[in-house]
Amino acid sequence: MPTNPSLDPASVSPNTPGAPRRATARFMLSHPLHLISLGFGSGLAPFAPGTFGTLLGWASFAAFSHYLTVIEWGVLIAVGFFAGIVICGFTAKKLGTDDPSPVVWDEIVAMWLVLLLVSPVSFSGQLGAFLVFRFFDALKPPPIRYFDRKLKGGFGIMFDDLVAAFFTLLVIALWRMWA
Q1: CA 11: distance to chain centroid?
Q2: Residue boundaries of the structural domains of the chain
Q3: How far apart are CA 172 and CA 179, in angstroms?
Q4: Are 134 and 51 in contact (CB under 8 A)?
Q5: Of 41, 47, 64, 88, which one is least surrounded by beta carbons within 10 A?
Q6: What angle, rounded to 10 degrees, do the helices at 123-139 and 49-64 form?
Q7: What global pTM score does this model have?
Q8: pLDDT score for 5
Q9: What is the C-alpha separation between 167 and 163, in angstroms, rounded?
Q10: Which pLDDT value is given to residue 12?
């Protein structure tokens, strides 16, 4: 915790020019794009919002997988990725930071991609995919860290999770090959 309250972004008035804003329920409900980018509230979790966003991605995949075909999922993921560039970029700009942790639409779409490409798989396989994805997304080993630092705006927010999804799928493919 900062010793100087003026350094704490949560204590900065939202009217201070250039100061980062704090994502709140009121902020989320102020615009439909914020509702989506903040994962319908999952990004407002008081700790590990990316994990809560990924859980929402997993839960929504489980809920809708009985209704959507592989092609429909592919279209939804592609649209979700490209729309996410605009949606996440809009919210990040309003929050005044490059990649705010409450923005979790990127985790949701990436988790959909991972689960689509590993399906059909048991609950334990889905749990494994979730854990591996969270590892890559949270720790951001190279080259994910490179993309996270170099790419800005909505594209940067979405792209580093796409790379984390790729590495998750690579680990799962290697696991399946050796198991």
Answers
A1: 25
A2: 33-178
A3: 10
A4: yes
A5: 47
A6: 150
A7: 0.88
A8: 38
A9: 6
A10: 39
